[in-house]
Design goal:
Blueprint: E1 5-6, H1 16-21, H2 32-49, E2 54-59, H3 62-71, E3 79-84, H4 87-98, E4 102-107, H5 116-125, E5 131-135, E6 137-138, E7 143-144, H6 147-155, E8 160-164, H7 176-179, E9 183-187, E10 198-203, H8 205-213, H9 223-230, H10 241-257, H11 259-279, E11 283-284, E12 294-298, H12 305-316, E13 318-319, E14 321-322, E15 331-335, H13 342-358, H14 367-378
Parallel strand pairs: 1-13, 3-4, 3-5, 5-8, 8-9
Antiparallel strand pairs: 2-10, 6-7, 9-10, 11-12, 12-15, 14-15
The structure holds pyridoxal-5'-phosphate.
The site of pyridoxal-5'-phosphate has 11 residues, from helix 3.
Length: 379
C-alpha cells in the first residue's frame, strides 16, 4: 500500500480540516451567505498580502492571473521588461509576445538573481517601458529575486512592478504595501495549502491608472469587471463556491497559527533540508538568494536528477520535482512551503538518501537526517 506524499513545489498537501470544510453542501453563489464568504475571503487575502489594495480572485491556475496582468495593463506594441531567470520568467516573456507586446528580456543565468541595477539602467534608457514583470521566487531554480530593491527602482518611473508570487506568498513575508508592489499575483496550490484552481492579483493605485489606458482584449480576466463585482462581494461569473469555503478555512488556520510563525517554521524546514544537502556533499542549484520556500539541489556528477525523482515516486509514492529545460536531469527540488511539517521534511531527506545511495552517490547514509534533526532540535 502506498501513502502519497506531496513534497513538490505545488500542489502541496491540503490540511484535512480544510478538505472537510470543502465537503459541505453547496450554497448558491448569488446568496447573501455566499456574499458574506466573499467578504471574508477578500479580508483574508488582504491580510496575507499585507495590503490595503483590492485583491481579485480568479477561478484559474496561477497563469490565468499572470495573463490578466498583461492583458489588463498593456496595449498592443507596449514594451515591458521580463526578467528571465528560469521557466516562470520565460512565461512572462511568452505572455507578452502572445498579446503582441514587446518583451525587453533581461536574461539572468539560471540559479542567479536579477541585478536591480540592470533594470534601473533599462528603465532610465527607455521611459516608454510600461512595466517590469518578475517572480518573487523563480520556482524552477529556487532563487528569490530581490523584489524590494526592484520596487525601489520602479517607484519613481512610469513603469509598474508586477510580481509573480505564486510560490512565495504565504511562505515568507511579502509586504505588498510596505514595499510598494503595484501588482502581486498568487495562486491557491502552493504556500496557501489549497487545491489548484484559484488565482489572485492585488492591484495598487499606479496599476489602476495604467489599467485605465490598456486596450488589449480581455473578457473573462477583466480586472475592471471583477473590481466592480468583487468590491460588492459578488463574482462576475459563477464563483467556485467549494474552493472559497476551503480558502476561508485556510485563513482561519493561518490566523490560529500566525503568519509569522508559518514563515519561521518554513525557514527552519528549509535550513534543515539545506543542512542535509551539505551533509551529502552536494550543492544548491540556487547560487544566489536561495529561497526558504523550496530547495533546488544540484545533482552530483553521474547522477540523473530525474532518476532521483522517479525513485521516490515509484518506490515510496513521494512526489518531489526534477528540473525543467536546461536544468532537466541536473537538479531535484523539494518544497518547504504549506502544510508540511518537520517529519515530512525528514521523510524526504531519508528517502532521497536511499535514492542517492541506490544510484551510486558516495556519502554516509543517515548524515542528512542527522544534520536536519540537529537543526529541528535546536529550533
Ligand atoms: C506554480 C507557479 C505558477 C503558476 O502555475 P500554474 O500551473 O498556472 O498554477 C506561476 N509562477 C510560479 C513562480 C509558480 O511557481
Amino acid at each position: 500500500m502506498k501513502k502519497v506524499s506531496l513534497l513538490a513545489p505545488g500542489p502541496t498537501p491540503v490540511p484535512p480540516r480544510t478538505l472537510l470544510a470543502m465537503a459541505q453542501p453547496l450554497i448558491h453563489h448569488r446568496s447573501a451567505d455566499f456574499q458574506e464568504v466573499i467578504g471574508q475571503v477578500r479580508a483574508g487575502l488582504k491580510k496575507i498580502y499585507q495590503t490595503a489594495n483590492e485583491v481579485l480572485v480568479f477561478c484559474s491556475s496561477g497563469t490565468g492571473a499572470m495573463e490578466s496582468a498583461v492583458s489588463n495593463l498593456l496595449s498592443p506594441g507596449d514594451k515591458a521588461v521580463a526578467i528571465r531567470g528560469g521557466k516562470f520568467g520565460e512565461r512572462w516573456s511568452l505572455l507578452l509576445e502572445a498579446y503582441g507586446c514587446q518583451p525587453v528580456n533581461v536574461d539572468v543565468p539560471w540559479g542567479q538573481a536579477v541585478d536591480p541595477g540592470q533594470v534601473e539602467a533599462l528603465l532610465k534608457a527607455d521611459p516608454t517601458i510600461k512595466a517590469v514583470y518578475v517572480q518573487a521566487l523563480e520556482t524552477s531554480t529556487g532563487v528569490d529575486h530581490p523584489i524590494q530593491a526592484l520596487a525601489q527602482v520602479t517607484k519613481n518611473t512610469g513603469a509598474v512592478l508586477v510580481v509573480d508570487a505564486v510560490s512565495a506568498l504565504g511562505a515568507y513575508s511579502i509586504p505588498t504595501d510596505q514595499w510598494g508592489l503595484d501588482v502581486v499575483i498568487s495562486g491557491s496550490q502552493k504556500a496557501l495549502m489549497m487545491p489548484p484552481g484559484l488565482a489572485f492579483a492585488s492591484i495598487g493605485p499606479k496599476a489602476m491608472e495604467l489599467m485605465k489606458k490598456s486596450t488589449l482584449p480581455k473578457f473573462y480576466f477583466s480586472w475592471a469587471k471583477e473590481l466592480k463585482n468583487q468590491t460588492e462581494n459578488k463574482g462576475a461569473f459563477t464563483s467556485p463556491v467549494t474552493l472559497f469555503m476551503g480558502l476561508l478555512d485556510i485563513f482561519k488556520l493561518i490566523d490560529e497559527v500566525g503568519l509569522e510563525t508559518i514563515f519561521a517554521e518554513t525557514a527552519v524546514r528549509s535550513q534543515a533540508f539545506k543542512a542535509a544537502v551539505a551533509a551529502w556533499g552536494l550543492e544548491l542549484y540556487s547560487k544566489q538568494r536561495p529561497s526558504t520556500a523550496l530547495t533546488a539541489v544540484q545533482c552530483p556528477a553521474g547522477i540523473d536528477g530525474q532518476k532521483v525523482v522517479k525513485w521516490l515516486k515509484e518506490k515510496y509514492a513521494i512526489y518531489i520535482a526534477g528540473g525543467q529545460d536546461q536544468a532537466k536531469g541536473k537538479i531535484f527540488r523539494v518544497a518547504h512551503m504549506g502544510y508540511i511539517n518537520e517529519f515530512d521534511t525528514l521523510q524526504a531527506i531519508s528517502a532521497i538518501e536511499m535514492a542517492l545511495k541506490g544510484l551510486g552517490h558516495a556519502f554516509e547514509m543517515g548524515s542528512g537526517v542527522a544534520a536536519a534533526q540537529k537543526i529541528f532540535g535546536e529550533a
